[in-house]
Specification:
Transmembrane segments (chain B): 6-23, 28-48, 60-83
Mean pLDDT of chain A: 92
InterPro entries (chain B): NADH_UbQ_OxRdtase_chain4L/K (IPR001133), NUOK/Mnh_C1-like (IPR039428)
Oligomer: heterodimer
Shape of chain A: globular
Strand content of chain B: under 5%
Number of domains of chain A: 1
Membrane topology (chain B): Multi-pass membrane protein
Radius of gyration of chain B: 17 Å
Low-confidence stretches of chain A: none
Order of helices and strands of chain A: HHHHHHHHHHHHHHEEHHHHEHH
Number of helices of chain B: 3
Pfam families (chain B): Oxidored_q2
CATH topology of chain B: Helix Hairpins
GO molecular function (chain B): oxidoreductase activity, acting on NAD(P)H
Strand order of the largest sheet of chain A: 2-1-3
Radius of gyration of chain A: 22 Å
Distance between the termini of chain A: 30 Å
């Protein structure tokens, strides 16, 4: 037997390799740099790595390759666009994460123990959140570009495992945060077992682990269809779990609420981009020819997800839970883009993912600022009259809510409009009707929050709005500018996406 | 012996695992049930590998083991932390976030 060394195209893989390198340096920094310099070193390493990686993605934007890593990953237009979106979202999230006040000084210590108090008093704050973030981002970058089952599974775990830990790092309400980590971990591992089992059946169906091989079998239609159906169903469960679609959404409100807010923002935005990226690739290329068998079910899930998310969000009294249900509804809207299964649907989904991700990070950045003596205040009743006390922050938050609601002149409107018109074009009329209906329902609870902030008398209960740190301010300003710029003048980005976004097979 | 029997066994193991996750209350046992599901998937991979006469399935089984090991590291860390702060690893006790 002759062993042939695999040929790797390091230029095309460099964005991910840089991130992994940065994450490893982060681990070393955590071990060897003195406590005074640790936070700033970690922040510079992380930001430097992310920016370097983004530059590298920009350089390879016109490349197309199926053989970058011996057929395991594919680099094409959508891959580059999704990777760039993930990196931009990651950079603005890191600005918020940099406020170490949100994270426990020592995750291993018992909540309320002397050990923890000592770590806080002596300023011995651990900063493992930075390397964890980088590991998660490298998994997210790999997930949408994988083109075989092994890489797909490894990437899924690479992005999930750090996130499970990050969900448990909150400084305040540590028990709730640990509980969020436990729930996220158990349900996440449960869903990845389904995912893996589905992969086994896809492999059994096609005798191939590569997407190209599976697609050939689907197109040829020679295999045992039962195996294909089981495989598709179980792999879809794994993916739908990651995007938080109903009925696989149970984890998301709890995890969103319990996790440290900067992490919630990062997770909500970046995981969605990665998971939908992989979903688009799998459904648009691998399963496209078996469309008859998955479109009806996926349409039903999309409709339930949109309506459920919008309806349950109305009843929420906690701003993070409300945003969680709103993100479930948005997962439904994005599924409309997957169902569309045409070029317009792909373009619209990528645009929507970017616009929604940026607005989400911005919105959660603002949630981190509303505090009282005991930490963040997420109870919506205590947000009353915020607009009178801190008009700027309240106005910005209102802007993000309007974008989520899809009001014209915000990026949300363009995203929803393009995704629904793509779905309509492909004949998924019921999905479009449900989408428009649930957008109307959703507008109600977004606008209710705006009314609460601006037209209700404030209560004096010690709730105040912190002055944002310089880095958080950059995030908020960037997100606001992007949200409105894409709403007013989306043409350049839309045409950029349209030119690039074609899956190669 | 017919290779399909191994598929039935794997489906059975997977079901036992999935039911265990739903009905058991101790986080460690739930986690063990998840591991059982992963190993059921592994058995399917190896069986299909045998049926299809292709080695990739066996390679995936090794990858799964490595990934499962990583999952144990992260999972046990989380479960042990929560046990130390609550003196209980029951998933029912963890209900601060329910409303």
């Amino acid at each position: 037997m002759v062993f042939t060394a695999p040929v790797l195209n390091y230029t095309l893989l460099s964005p991910i390799l840089i991130l992994l390198g940065g994450a490893l340096i982060g681990v070393l920094v955590e071990a060897f740099v003195s406590k005074g310099l640790r936070a700033i070193t970690q922040l510079s390493v992380t930001l430097g790595t992310l920016i370097l990686s983004l530059v590298q993605v920009w350089k390879i934007r016109n490349e197309q390759s199926l053989t970058a890593a011996a057929g395991s990953v594919v680099i094409d237009g959508p891959a580059v666009l999704l990777q760039a979106s993930i990196l931009i979202i990651a950079i603005i999230s890191v600005f918020v994460i940099a406020d170490t006040d949100h994270f426990t000084a020592l995750a291993a210590s018992l909540p309320g123990s002397d050990e923890e108090r000592h770590a806080v008093q002596s300023g011995n704050q651990v900063t493992e959140v930075y390397p964890l973030t980088l590991f998660a981002i490298s998994g997210m970058m790999l997930f949408p570009i994988s083109s075989d089952l092994i890489t797909l599974f490894v990437a899924l775990e690479m992005l999930s495992l750090p996130l499970y830990l990050m969900a448990g790092l909150s400084r305040r309400r540590r028990l709730a945060s640990q509980e969020a980590a436990l729930k996220y971990f158990l349900l996440g591992a449960f869903s990845s077992a389904f995912f893996l089992f589905g992969m086994a059946y896809l492999y059994g169906y096609s005798a191939s682990v590569t997407f190209a091989g599976i697609r050939e079998s689907v197109v040829g239609g020679s295999g045992n269809d039962v195996l294909l159906l089981i495989g598709m169903a179980f792999v879809s469960i794994g993916l739908l779990f990651k995007v938080g679609a109903v009925p696989f959404h149970a984890w998301s409100p709890d995890v969103y609420q319990g996790a440290p807010t900067p992490i919630t923002g990062f997770m909500a935005a970046a995981t969605k981009v990665a998971a939908f990226g992989a979903m688009l690739r799998i459904y648009y290329t691998v399963f496209a020819n078996a469309q008859w068998s998955w479109t009806p079910l996926l349409s039903a899930i999309a409709i339930i997800t949109m309506l459920f998310g919008s309806l349950v969000a109305i009843a929420q009294r906690d701003v993070k839970r409300m945003l969680a249900y709103s993100s479930i509804a948005h997962a439904g809207f994005l599924l409309a883009g997957v169902i569309a299964l045409n070029k317009a649907g792909l373009d619209a989904s990528i645009f929507y993912l970017f616009a929604y991700g940026v607005a989400t990070v911005g919105a959660f950045a603002i949630v981190t600022l509303v505090r009282d003596a005991g930490g963040e205040v997420t109870d919506l009743n205590r947000w009353k009259g915020l607009g009178k006390r801190s008009p700027w922050i309240a106005t910005t938050f209102a802007g993000f809510l309007l974008a989520f609601a899809g009001i014209p002149l915000t990026s949300g409107f363009i995203g929803k409009f393009s995704i629904f018109s793509a779905a309509y074009e492909s004949g998924a009329k019921s999905v479009v009707i449900a989408g428009v209906l649930s957008s109307a329902i959703a507008a109600f609870f977004y606008i209710r929050v705006i009314v609460l902030m601006f037209f209700t008398d404030s209560v004096q209960d010690g709730t105040s709005v912190e002055i944002p740190s310089a880095l958080t301010r950059i995030t908020i300003i960037f997100s606001t500018v992007v949200t409105f710029a894409l709403g007013i003048y989306p043409a350049p980005l839309l045409s950029f996406i349209t030119n690039l976004a074609t899956f190669i097979r | 012996m017919d290779a399909a029997n191994y598929l039935y066994l794997s489906a059975l193991l997977f079901t036992i695992g999935a039911v265990g996750v739903v009905v058991r209350r101790n986080a460690i046992v739930v986690f063990m049930c998840i591991e059982l599901m992963l190993n059921a998937a592994n058995l399917s991979f190896v069986t299909f590998s045998r049926i299809n006469g292709d080695l990739n399935g066996q390679v995936i089984a090794f990858f799964t083991m490595v990934v499962a090991a990583c999952e144990v590291v992260v999972g046990l860390a989380i479960i042990v932390t929560i046990y130390r702060s609550r003196r209980s690893a029951s998933v029912d006790d963890a209900s601060l976030l329910k409303r």
